[in-house]
Amino acid sequence: MPQLSVGDTAPDFTLPDQSGTPVSLASLRDGAARGVVVYFYPRAGTAGCTKEACDFRDSLEGWRRAGYAVVGISPDPPAAQARFAEKQSLPFPLLSDPDHAVMEAWGAWGEKKNYGRTTTGVIRSTVVVGAEGDVTLARYNVRATGHVDRLRRELGLDD
Q1: Four-point Cα dihedral 84, 60, 30, 151, nearest 10
Q2: Of 6, 39, 132, 147, whose CA is between 20 and 30 Å from 141?
Q3: What pLDDT score does 116 carry?
Q4: Which residues belong to the active site?
Q5: Which residues are CB-contacts of 6 (< 8 A; sequence separation ≥ 6)?
Q6: Nearest one of 84, 86, 87, 66 to 75, comparing CA atoms
Q7: What is the pTM of this model?
Q8: Topology of 8-155 in CATH?
Q9: Among candidate residues 147, 136, 140, 139, the one with its CA nearest the CA of residue 29
């Protein structure tokens, strides 16, 4: 699947959050002055996904002050997302994309190397969508550790 690049229009989506409530990209953009940080992760509760989610959680106030909303998307069902959100005290939406249609449209699903093997699955990625719906930053195949800090530096948000 082609990956998104700066200047592309981000494909809209509506997916259920951890409580089963539909959430759209448009509604997230409406609530954020500068845009939305959309991050894709493989599986709720795993070590890397927990590290990344907790880094977003711990810096969420800074993201909000800067005018950004944060949302995570994985193929996990809403019930698994709810357990993950509760266990880690995650105060932002976690969306369920079990058929990975949104991940495919955003270039976050495809072949990847894992421990020397080629597999198909979620490509850990983050796309920042501006208030008008355009991609302002896109990072694919990122490492969970240090990723949130790098994003903040790239966007000039260091506190």
Answers
A1: -100
A2: 132
A3: 85
A4: 49
A5: 135, 136, 137, 138
A6: 84
A7: 0.95
A8: Glutaredoxin (3.40.30)
A9: 136
Secondary structure element (H or E) that encloses residue 50, with its range: helix 47-58
Q: What angle do CA 133, 136, 149 make, to 5 degrees?
A: 125
Calpha distance 154→65 (Å, rounded): 16
Q: Do residues 81 and 17 lie in contact, with contact meaning Cβ atoms separated by under 8 Å? A: yes
As a residue count, the chain comes to 159
Q: How many angstroms from the chain centroid is the CA of residue 93? A: 10
Written in H, E and C, the secondary structure of 55-120 is HHHHCHHHHHHCCEEEEEEECCCHHHHHHHHHHHCCCCCEEECCCCHHHHHCCCEEEEEECCEEEE
Question: What is the C-alpha to C-alpha distance for residues 109 and 11, in angstroms, rounded to an integer?
Answer: 14
Nearest to 56 by CA among 27, 22, 92: 92
pLDDT means per 10 residues in the chain (159 residues)? 92 97 97 96 94 96 96 98 97 97 96 85 96 96 93 86
Q: Burial-class residue 122 by CB neighbours within 10 Å (0-12, 13-18, 19+).
A: buried
